[in-house]
């Protein structure tokens, strides 16, 4: 079971606090952790922890901060293909602050920006399923066109999705996703505008909606079990990584979504970017 993830990898600096500081105020954090982050990278780590053979193609570069990304991915069984190995500038960095009492998080990030990243000369590896997050647009479009089966992480609208969605089997949207062609902000309008064979829309702790163009049951909702959330950072990425695994091993959409919900539930009940992986069964 081979999964290819194409998209963003960042250096995440994660601090846990008992309260968020106000303007011009400092607070002491309870803990500090550094890990690879970004939608594609977090999904890749999740998929590898669930037993898939995972390759992540992204841009890390030659800056010393990139070694933090490389080390974390290697430690968690993800094969890295760096599409910009000689890039001298720092990789994208995210400062993540998690509120200890609720698990809610705030993120300040500098993502890929306008960095132009193409396909490496050796091309893309074979995979049973490909996940793209829309970052690094040239790379994302190439991966989408080459995919046997394509899952798209559509957290928020990106213009490149207009080129990617026609190749998708499943598009997984967040509740904040707004397609510019949607008639209104409803899930039904979003699914119609995306126009993929299958559309999944997550709503945090509320039920996950799904829409399918084929079959007798064309839409439905799957409940999200109530859990005591202590850290919601990366929960959506964990959902997408688990959804990729479920689809790659041949599960139908509803079964794969239910599996992804369970995995995301494990993620939010454990603090820190990686400790939760030890609790996957």
Automatic annotation (TrEMBL):
**InterPro entries, sorted:** Carboh/pur_kinase_PfkB_CS (IPR002173), Ketohexokinase-related (IPR052562), PfkB_dom (IPR011611), Ribo/fructo_kinase (IPR002139), Ribokinase-like (IPR029056)
Classification via Pfam families: PfkB
Keyword set for this entry?
Kinase, Transferase
Q: Which residues form the Carbohydrate kinase PfkB domain?
A: 3-275
- A Gene Ontology molecular function term of the record: kinase activity
Q: Which family does it belong to?
A: Belongs to the carbohydrate kinase PfkB family.
Q: Which PANTHER family match?
A: KETOHEXOKINASE (PTHR42774:SF3), PHOSPHOTRANSFERASE SYSTEM TRANSPORT PROTEIN (PTHR42774)
What is this protein identified as?
Carbohydrate kinase
Name the lineage: Bacteria, Bacillati, Actinomycetota, Actinomycetes, Micromonosporales
């Amino acid at each position: 079971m081979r999964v290819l993830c194409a998209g963003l990898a960042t250096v995440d600096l994660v601090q846990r606090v008992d309260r968020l500081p106000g303007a011009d105020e400092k607070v002491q954090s309870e803990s500090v952790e550094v890990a690879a982050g970004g939608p594609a990278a977090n999904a890749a780590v999740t998929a590898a922890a669930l037993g898939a053979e995972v390759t992540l193609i992204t841009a890390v570069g030659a800056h010393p901060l990139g070694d933090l990304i490389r080390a974390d991915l290697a430690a968690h069984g993800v094969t890295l293909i760096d599409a910009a190995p000689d890039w001298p500038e720092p990789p994208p960095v995210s400062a993540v602050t998690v509120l200890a009492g609720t698990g809610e998080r705030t993120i300040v990030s500098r993502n890929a920006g306008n960095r132009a990243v193409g396909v490496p000369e050796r091309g893309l590896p074979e995979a049973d399923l490909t996940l793209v997050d829309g970052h690094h647009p040239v790379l994302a479009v190439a991966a989408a066109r080459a995919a046997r089966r394509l899952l798209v992480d559509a957290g928020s609208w990106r213009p490149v999705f207009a080129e990617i969605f026609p190749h998708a089997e499943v598009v997984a949207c967040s509740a904040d996703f707004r397609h510019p062609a949607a008639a209104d902000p409803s899930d039904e309008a979003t699914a119609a505008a995306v126009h993929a064979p299958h559309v999944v829309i997550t709503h945090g702790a509320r039920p996950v909606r799904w829409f399918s163009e084929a079959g007798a049951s064309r839409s439905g909702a799957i409940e999200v079990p109530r859990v005591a959330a202590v850290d919601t950072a990366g929960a959506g990425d964990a959902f997408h990584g688990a959804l990729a695994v479920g689809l790659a091993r041949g599960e139908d959409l509803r079964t794969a979504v239910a599996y992804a919900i369970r995995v995301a539930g494990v993620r939010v009940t454990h603090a820190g970017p990686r400790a939760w992986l030890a609790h996957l069964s």
